[in-house]
Specification:
143 residues; mainly alpha; 76% helix
């Protein structure tokens, strides 16, 4: 069974969040990219559904998600992440530790949305079932 660890899942979710703007513009450009970007499109949809959920539950967290990961505007590359966090904590009038907790909550919601969309699986159970079904189909076609 091919299992993936939680830190690897978090890193993947963070990577997809950081690449959201670029992937979102790419996925609609040409048919070749669309054919290749099925997983990319699924991640975009998962992030969009996570944003909708957060907007309904806690609009401040959704705004923080948008600003932290640069979902709508580009991130300043010359500014380190810590400096951005400090500036965001001042602008949003919350403590820095609250922003770190919110970031973890956001990553969890994105991971749940990605799991619901079928982009990722925690224990590789779906992949094992698909492989087993494929083997069963090939065995029945031989008989």
């Amino acid at each position: 069974m091919k299992a993936i660890s939680l830190p690897q899942l978090r890193a993947e979710a963070k990577r997809q969040l950081m690449n959201y703007r670029r992937n979102n513009s790419r996925v609609y450009r040409s048919s070749a990219i669309r054919a290749e970007g099925g997983e990319m499109l699924a991640w975009i949809r998962a992030i969009d559904s996570a944003r909708i959920y957060l907007r309904a539950q806690n609009p401040a967290k959704e705004r923080y998600m948008t600003r932290l990961f640069g979902l709508e505007t580009p991130l300043p590359r010359s500014q380190p992440m810590r400096a951005r966090l400090i500036r965001l904590s001042e602008e949003m009038c919350v403590s820095e530790s609250t922003l770190y907790k919110w970031r973890e909550d956001i990553l969890e919601v994105v991971l749940y949305a990605a799991m619901e969309a079928g982009v990722i699986g925690l224990f590789g159970i779906r992949a094992a079932q698909e492989q087993e079904c494929a083997q069963n189909e090939s065995n029945t076609s031989r008989d």
